Amino acid sequence: PQSRFHASTVVGDREPLHATSLGKVFLSALTNDEVREYYATHKIVRMTENSIMTAEAMIPELVRTRKLGYAMDCEEFEPDLICVAMPIWDYTGKIAAAMSVSGPSSHMTETYMELVIQELRKAVNKISASLGYTESIQKKLPV
Predict the structure, then answer these.
(1) Residue 65 main-chain phi, psi, to 5 deg
(2) Cys-Cys crosslink for 86: which of 41, 101, 116, 124, Cβ 3.0 to 4.6 Å?
(3) Closest Cα partner for 84 from 20, 28, 13?
């Protein structure tokens, strides 16, 4: 049987940072104290049972995001939706944008995710380079 999965986004829509892989990419640029401040000053809505509802639960996720270079949303925004996102860096070493790939959890197997991550990394590296980013810039930034 063919899947009838449908996810749609609208340019300009705003989605919660805590429940999306794109949002986690941007949160990963914050310090732990800034993440705590974000959680304290924003309405944190449970989108699904997997949504990360506290700063203390989000911080290890952001540590993993920084280490691996990508963020995952495992049915945190919508049931049956898995998303991976990576930052696009500018010439100053700051996150200028992010790019993501989403799909139904039934199709996002480990093998497929490895391919998605590999191809997504190529794309964001190419875009980052076009914005003047080099790895030497990143190495000079304070942690």
Answers:
(1) -60, -45
(2) 124
(3) 20
What is the 3 state secondary structure string of the chain?
A: CCCCCCCCCCCCCCCCHHHCHHHHHHHCCCCHHHHHHHHHHCCCCCCCCCCCCCHHHHHHHHHHHHHHCCEEEECCCCCCEEEEEEEEECCCCCEEEEEEEEEECCCCCHHHHHHHHHHHHHHHHHHHHHCCCCHHHHHHCCC
For residues 39 and 22, what is the distance between their CA atoms, to the nearest angstrom? 17
**Identity at 73, one-letter amino acid code:** D
Distance CA 115, CA 82 (A): 14
Its pTM stands at 0.87
Q: What is the pLDDT of residues 32-64, one digit of tens each?
A: 999 999 999 999 999 999 999 999 999 999 999
Whole-Å CA distances, 105 to 21, 22, 54, 112, 133: 14, 17, 24, 11, 33
User: Is the model's pLDDT at 1 over the cut of 80?
Assistant: no
